[in-house]
Amino acid sequence: MKSGSKRSRSRGWHALVAVAGMTASVQPALASGACLRGINLAGAEFGEVGEAYGKGYIYPSAETIGYFSQKGFNTVRLPFLWERLQPKLYGAFDKNEAKRLADAVEAIRAGGMVTILDPHNYGRYNGTLIGSEEVPQSAFADFWRRLAMMFPQRPDIVFGLMNEPYGISAQDWLSSANSAISAIRQTGAINLVLVPGTAWTGAHSWLGGTYGTPNATVMANITDPQNNYAYEVHQYLDTDFSGKNDECSRAEDAVKALGSFASWLRSHRLRGFLGEFAVPRKPECQAALADMVNVVERSPDIWLGWSYWAAGEWWPAEEPLNIQPVNGEDRPQMQTLSRFFSEHSGCNQ
């Protein structure tokens, strides 16, 4: 659960660009799972709405995309702000912002990677909750209808419905998510959809928590005409599972939380994706990082993959979770993750 930007801080899988070697051909569902190994490239969600591009926010550079591609990552989760792309609810997308987003997606594709589109808004538009009078569910559905139409018949683009909704009941969020999925499918889009839960979509709170009816009780009722979706969870390893602390004291609990979520997936015959997780650079945290990846990669029947939080040119060098290289030097976390890019690692067997 990360409440706020860190800077301020499925059942089915109908098609996927072949991520191993990344040819442009479309492959059918793989029985062994998709094996997405991703990095969150932050920057386009930075700053305040209204700040100029290149001053308040930035999309990832070709150099950064190339670095992670060369390291072996095959997926980029790309955060951006809903309000920048659609300045007025139900209105047309801003042409300049839409082009920046499309250019970033093409740069990621040129690097041989799948893109996960991530409106990084915490279930809100300009700070107002989806489902409110000011931001009706229909506005969220309209946004996704327009975004799906930007990328028609592109199975190498995954639709992450929303980053970490919170302050909304699971029942209300389920309704919003189903409305958005319906709008996406009405465009003819077959893209994989990643569905978060409420309560920051934490794996540790999926089956319980104090925020109301748990995700586990409600979110299995997702409806998708294409049956091509998976559940996205996030899981940090620090004392409050927020990802804001420079330690990994809850590593054992975090690993157990992923296991419990995986059991829920398996019991409902569903699929999952670990969209955010991270540890600081401390040596004692590197084994915990490997444990998190192992949980996912050893169960490709239910996990589609993972994406580490985070990298991007604008992260401060001292940000403990950041794995953007400094002066060409790999971070310790990168050294830990690199071992999973061997062709002999778990989900490739």
Describe the structure.
- This is Cellulase (Glycosyl hydrolase family 5).
- It comes from Neorhizobium alkalisoli.
- Residues 47-311 form the Glycoside hydrolase family domain.
- There is one protein chain.
- The chain is α/β, with parallel strands linked by helices and 349 residues long.
- It has a single domain, classed as Glycosidases (TIM Barrel, Alpha-Beta Barrel), CATH 3.20.20.
- The protein is built from nine helices and twelve strands.
- The strands form three sheets. The chain has an eight-stranded parallel barrel. Strands 1-2 form a two-stranded antiparallel ribbon.
- The protein is globular.
- The two termini are 32 Å apart.
- The relative contact order is 0.16.
Chain-wise SSE layout:
Elements: E1 16-17, E2 26-27, E3 36-41, H1 62-71, E4 75-80, H2 82-85, H3 95-110, E5 114-119, E6 124-125, E7 128-129, H4 137-150, E8 157-160, H5 170-186, E9 193-196, H6 215-218, E10 229-234, H7 251-268, E11 272-276, H8 283-297, E12 303-311, H9 332-338
Parallel strand pairs: 3-4, 3-12, 4-5, 5-8, 8-9, 9-10, 10-11, 11-12
Antiparallel strand pairs: 1-2, 6-7
Helix pairs in contact: 4-5, 7-8, 8-9
